[in-house]
Amino acid sequence: RRLVAELLRSPAMETRHSCSRADAQPLPPTPASMARASWRAALVGLAVAALSLGPAAGQNMRESIQPMMRCTACERVIGKAAPFVNRLVLKERIWSKELAREIMDHVSSHSCSDDELFGSNSGELLQGCLSFMTDSFPRIREGLRRHLHPRYEEFGEDVSATEFCVDIGVCSQGLGHSLDRSLQRSQLLEEHRKRMQDL
Predict the structure, then answer these.
(1) I need a labelling partner for 182 at 20 to 30 A (CA). Which of 99, 121, 174, 197 fits?
(2) How far is CA 141 from CA 72, 101, 119, 173, 176, in A?
(3) Are 59 and 47 in contact (CB under 8 A)?
(4) What's the Cα-to-Cα distance from 150 to each of 3, 20, 81, 159, rounded to whole Å?
């Protein structure tokens, strides 16, 4: 119940309620807001399913979705940091203690506290981000180092968030996939189904 309550108390849900009042003029939906609503609906569905299974099974489901939350957080955080790192790659900067500090400060400042990435998301996803950053910080540093140090095969290559998160062991098959990519695949399948029906 706490998980469902957290989702319903989120800013996106509060905005939805405020727009339903008679004296409010609802804004037209944007692609970003529709995407947030889609993944939020998926999380609510998981939470309701967890509650219906009972306390023990519900706790197991909460634990089972943590890999998905961690992977989602990884792809969002690294996706935000990648353009910054790729500009350094383009400038042919070489890894050093000073550069490492600059890069990791950038990663830290655009992680779990970044409203653009996690401002309207649920507590479960924020917990996944905190877990990812706490457990994976050394691997993030080492993974980025490989793109800026000539001794490594990845030297001079751009950082791809999807590949990076797999390489450092945060994302994997099954529930280890990110929630964002799972929803993207679902949307593509739905669009394909609609196109086939129109033929």
Answers:
(1) 197
(2) 18, 10, 25, 23, 21
(3) no
(4) 46, 57, 21, 15
pTM > 0.90: no
Residue 123 has pLDDT above 60, yes or no: yes
Give the structural domain span for 114.
66-198
What is the residue-wise DSSP string for 42-94? HHHHHHHHHHHT-HHHHHHHHHHTHHHHHHHHHHHHHHHHHHHHHHHHHTT--
- Could you read off the pLDDT of 26-55 as tens digits, one per residue? 444 444 444 444 444 444 444 444 444 445
> Is residue 97 one of the residues assigned to a domain?
yes
Is residue 24 situated within a structural domain?
no
Dist. CA 7–CA 67, nearest whole Å: 19
